[in-house]
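Example for tutorial group B:
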């Protein structure tokens, strides 16, 4: 019994100091990561190399380049473009699966239903066996080099701290996912709505195959059409695998060299927005939407030893307003990806940096106002939503002003 009361005391002291220590790691002495929607390098590579990598990211591909046979769009830039290449867009993807007797199983061809095909005969459709499906919005990739440079231990620390602060009510889940370029060595996932990837090279190979239908040495197997083979050797695909051996690295280089999304400095400077951030913290939104995270020191070996954090990305403070962890806030889309069955109804905390650059919110893009997005939070976040409902009109206005500066 005594142990319980000591633990309770620790929790209360920790909770009382919560407002004073919003970040897991002290940010003192670290340098702010560069921000801006300005098509300029963050220093990871020089501007010429950045421009060349950006061109590759934005380049349209055609059948002769390996596009398809099933795909979603012709370039990375098509879905990651607003307000500049690498950012976000309104484009959604459709995922589906089957859930029966407590078990999630895929459907033939995997959970991603491609919306386009190079031949009308092989257009994918949702099979009758699917009984779970969801939209997923495109995500911002600007600043993702900094996110990649976050140590696994930092994410673990955030998860442990959440649990301590809230007596286990909130506890982000980490999923360990394979890094393709490191022989599938495991690392804490941080990219995608399900934290399904940990490295930008792996995500790039995955996206090149799954979004554009272009195979590469890290993802050499062409997608099927609802389970039917349509790759090289069938009449639908004239290009042998791997269809491209260079671009995956260029995509990763581009994203690693992007600056993080910037705030609207005019709105952020207003007393109203500043009071709004205080409301955000007082409500407990910052437990998941972490205002600050520090990247690993330059020289740290990450991604299973295949990448060393460079000066430009190491020891930097970022303001993602996210924790890159999975939570069940009652919005889960029922799809299992690289995580286990426990991740079925969890989503990654949406990083709120760059929030003002898109108007279709949440993973499915089906919330059109900030208030609606906030009111959809239940589950682990039910208490924060309850407090939000209890705000005075002036505090609500301040909170929304703050959010509109992100
Ligand atoms: C058809 C639209 C589309 C295309 C084309 C596309 N993406 Fe994406 N991208 C998305 C969507 C949707 C997500 C969220 C996927 C999910 O988690 O379900 C995403 C997520 C990402 C992420 C994760 C960002 C984060 O911070 O979590 C990265 C990185 C990424 N894409 C890179 C690429 C690259 C590189 C290409 C080109 C090879 C590409 N994408 C092509 C739609 C697209
Ligand atoms: C338990 C963790 C948690 C807490 C606490 C939390 N959120 Fe979230 N938030 C999430 C997750 C997870 C998502 C993504 C859910 C989805 O897409 O289904 C999200 C999404 C959002 C979005 C949509 C962003 C976008 O890009 O679509 C906004 C806005 C938001 N949260 C604001 C808030 C505010 C304001 C509070 C406090 C009242 C709050 N959140 C508290 C986890 C949390």
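The residue assignment follows.
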């Amino acid at each position: 019994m005594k142990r319980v009361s000591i633990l309770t005391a620790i929790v209360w002291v920790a909770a009382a100091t919560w407002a004073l220590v919003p970040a897991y790691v002290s940010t003192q002495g670290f340098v702010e990561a560069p921000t801006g929607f300005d098509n300029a390098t963050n220093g990871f590579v020089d501007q010429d190399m950045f421009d060349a990598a950006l061109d590759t990211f934005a380049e349209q591909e055609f059948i002769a380049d390996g596009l398809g046979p099933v795909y979603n769009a012709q370039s990375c830039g098509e879905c990651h473009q607003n307000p500049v290449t690498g950012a976000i867009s309104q484009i959604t993807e459709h995922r589906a699966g089957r859930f029966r007797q407590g078990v999630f199983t895929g459907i033939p061809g995997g959970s991603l239903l491609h919306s386009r095909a190079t031949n009308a005969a092989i257009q994918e459709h949702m099979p009758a066996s699917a009984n779970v499906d969801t939209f997923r919005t495109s995500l911002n990739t600007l600043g993702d080099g900094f996110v990649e440079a976050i140590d696994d231990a930092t994410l673990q620390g955030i998860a442990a701290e959440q649990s301590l602060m809230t007596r286990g009510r909130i506890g982000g889940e980490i999923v360990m996912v394979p890094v393709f370029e490191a022989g599938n060595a495991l690392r804490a996932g941080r990219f995608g709505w399900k934290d399904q990837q940990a490295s930008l090279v792996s995500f790039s190979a995955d996206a090149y195959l799954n979004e554009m239908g272009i195979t590469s040495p890290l993802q050499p197997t062409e997608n099927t059409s609802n389970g039917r083979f349509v790759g090289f050797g069938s009449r639908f695909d004239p290009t042998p695998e791997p269809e491209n051996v260079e671009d995956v690295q260029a995509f990763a280089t581009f994203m690693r060299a992007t600056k993080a999304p910037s705030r609207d400095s005019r709105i952020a400077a207003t007393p109203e927005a500043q009071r709004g951030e205080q409301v955000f913290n007082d409500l407990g939104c910052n437990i998941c939407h972490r205002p600050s995270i520090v990247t690993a020191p330059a020289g740290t070996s990450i991604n299973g030893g295949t990448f060393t954090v460079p000066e430009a990305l190491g020891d930097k403070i970022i303001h993602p307003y996210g924790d890159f962890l999975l939570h069940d806030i009652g919005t889960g889309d029922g799809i299992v990806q690289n995580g286990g069955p426990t991740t079925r109804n969890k989503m990654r905390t949406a990083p709120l940096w760059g929030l003002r650059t898109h108007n279709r919110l949440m993973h499915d893009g089906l919330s059109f106002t900030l208030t609606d997005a906030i009111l959809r939070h239940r589950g682990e976040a039910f208490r924060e939503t309850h407090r939000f409902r209890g705000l005075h009109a002036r505090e609500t206005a301040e909170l929304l002003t703050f959010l509109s500066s992100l």
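Residues 2-404 form one domain. Compare this with the pattern of hydrophobic and polar residues in the output above.
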